[in-house]
Amino acid sequence: MATVQKPDYAGRRTGFIFTDEHDALRDSMTAWVIKELAPHAEEWEETRFPDWVFRRAGELGFLGLCLPEEYGGQGGDYYYSLVRAEALTHAGSGGLSLGVSVHTDMVMPPLHEFGTEDQRQRYLVPSIAGELISCLGISEPGAGSDVAAIRTRAVRSGGDWVINGSKMFITNGARADYILLVVKTRPDERHKGMSLFLVDMKSPGVSVSRTLKKMGMHASDTAEITFEDVRVPDENLLGEEGRGFYHISWELQGERLVGAVMAVAGAERVLEKTIEYAYGRHAFGRPVAEFQSIRHKLAQMATQIEAAKQLTYATAWRFQNGEYAVREATMAKLFATQAACEIADQCIQIHGGYGYMQEYGIERAYRDMRLYRIGGGTDEIMLDVIGRSMAPRR
Ligand SMILES: Cc1cc2nc3c(=O)[nH]c(=O)nc-3n(C[C@H](O)[C@H](O)[C@H](O)COP(=O)(O)OP(=O)(O)OC[C@H]3O[C@@H](n4cnc5c(N)ncnc54)[C@H](O)[C@@H]3O)c2cc1C
User: Which residues are marked as active site?
Assistant: First the structure.
């Protein structure tokens, strides 16, 4: 029988944002990840990670850490989502972290925030239990960064909506039970013409056109999905019709912050391995870590990680305290993901030829990390959001 930990708000604060309770949850989830998931990391690169991971994580109470108990969640604060993302990095599989976080941090928060009671019962409760798997459909073959240019349409027909179009690069798309779908309900408008729908993937007219081969994140599946005359009832409209862009912009802040956490925690894991390697590997009669240039690289990376972590934690604190910290979440995602990519590169360098070999897991981290500078908004879009926020108000 699975033991589920409940939050205790009176717990001692052990750091800037975490309490004893967060640390205890991190320890128990990390132990589970190391015992039940990490041993399969290699195998899942070839096969993708299996659906039972969701069910098992749901059974242990890890999927609904920050969601209310009435829906089967643990009722914890926002910091628990950071704890979960950090713990998952111990599997050494970016694809696993990505697939789980799409479900927990990209689909479930807007479903809870904007969903009706009926939608929460039908989708959120089984998602928290790990009985339903979700995916998020924003990007299309012809529109990624320019979200308002999407062409997938939903048209009213009787009491229903009929959806036509396609979505691209959808994580969990090949296995999901439902998709949180972003469509145009008013095709002549840009931002004000968008709406969100919850669409069952088994609905007639929904098909996975192909699963895509990619550079990294091999343990996750990435699909192109086609919608042909898909009939969806009105009660599956999520949030307000015409407000979809604003709802999804709200979602993107959480997505960017969890992207920052996954990147920084992933970089930390890679650095830990590299320190161990650098002290064990000898050249010219001493551990390579004792060459000043290597020691300085290690110091530089540790500093980057600490800076990225503190920016991310400080932004999480703003979230937890009700602030809509778009600029800071954007900065955290930009800074943490760029740092993580640089760190993975340096760690390969310190491993020498072994870093290039698959068995050390460093080259995998390097390939996996690269996604974070594209998914959830590219570096260029992050810079644009930050830059625009700096213009003087006139
Ligand atoms: C492995 C993987 C998983 C993904 N998972 C999902 C998912 O689950 N759901 C989902 O909806 N999407 C997903 N995506 C899509 C991802 O969010 C998009 O790839 C990303 O937003 C970029 O869009 P794009 O690929 O269309 O690039 P484009 O928007 O075509 O951009 C191409 C280039 O132009 C630059 N550019 C574009 N606009 C500007 C501008 N205004 N100023 C400066 N430069 C600009 C970009 O930065 C980029 O360098 C995933 C992608 C990958 C690779």
Answer: 255
